[in-house]
Design a protein that fits this description.
Elements (H helix, E strand, L loop, with lengths): L3 E7 L6 H9 L6 E7 L6 H11 L4 E5 L5 H12 L4 E4 L5 E2 L3 H12 L3 E10 L4 E4 L11 H7 L7 E4 H6 L14 H9 L4 E13 L16 H12 L5 H22 L4 H14 L14 H11 L3 H26 L1
Amino acid sequence: MEKVSIIVPIYNIAKYLERCVLSLVEQTYSCIEILLVDDCSTDGSLAIAEALEAVHSNKCRVIRCEKHGGAARARNIGMEAAYGKWLIFVDGDDWVTPDYVETLYNTAQKDGADIVMSGFYYYYASGKCVEVSTFGDLTTDSPHREKVALCDAGPTARLFRASLFFDNHIAFPEDIWRAEDIATIIPISTMTDKISFVPRSMYYYFQRSNSLSNRNLKNADISFFPKMVLRMIELARPGFEKELEFRAVSELLYGMVTVMLRSGRTAKDLREHIDWFNGRFPHWRENAYIRRLPKCKQIFISFAAKKRYWISRALIFAWDTKQRLSFKKVEAKEE
């Protein structure tokens, strides 16, 4: 059995941390180390991590960051301290099924894979659980290029051969405050064509209304979007130009424009961004992967590219209204 290092970044999640760690301690695959990387928490998370380490010292190891640096820095510190030949990333407020590690590892051995992905659940405080696939309708036998273009880019719900990071000198960028995963996981995916899928969900992604991914970005610095995309292109291996271009379309014509509209950026700011994007990716409209997007995203991208912002704003308003109604139920449950 080869050791699997499970890296858990921790920052102010005292309410949820024990549930996460116990789900890892109780794994059916025993050759694991659980690295609890505390990013200078202020809510008692460190004390909980240390208590868990004391009880499960054969599996848990607490690492204390000298200064707060974000999830990317915590993951990098975890990787530097890891002894395993395989890496798994689990967020400290999430949890996994008891056979999570065993299933991913056995699939990697069976297929000779360097990355193994599973589906996951969005789990809400209300008890609602929604199954999500990180790879859509793709299968292990699908073309590798489609996996690079279409798979979810998060670091969770998957197993990585550690040498992919170390041999290629890939780390999570610490100067990008959000979506840094895309600048890491997509390049890593181009470093191997051995990616397998487990067609079931084993990872529970806890949805908190105050989590980073659910915060209002009004007035926030959104320069991370182009920085993240350009870093992704810089680090990826040559030969994936269309796949990376599609990722750029998804992030910069859908993701960034959405945030710009939500945060009240001016029409001038939007025009400048669209003009920059068209100059950097002049042939993006010919990208065949765009047809693989959900129809609503295709429509949004089309209107955004044509600078018809009032229609784009209406689409966002409808989506946000739906989200607010959903999270009202979540917040009521949390209180």
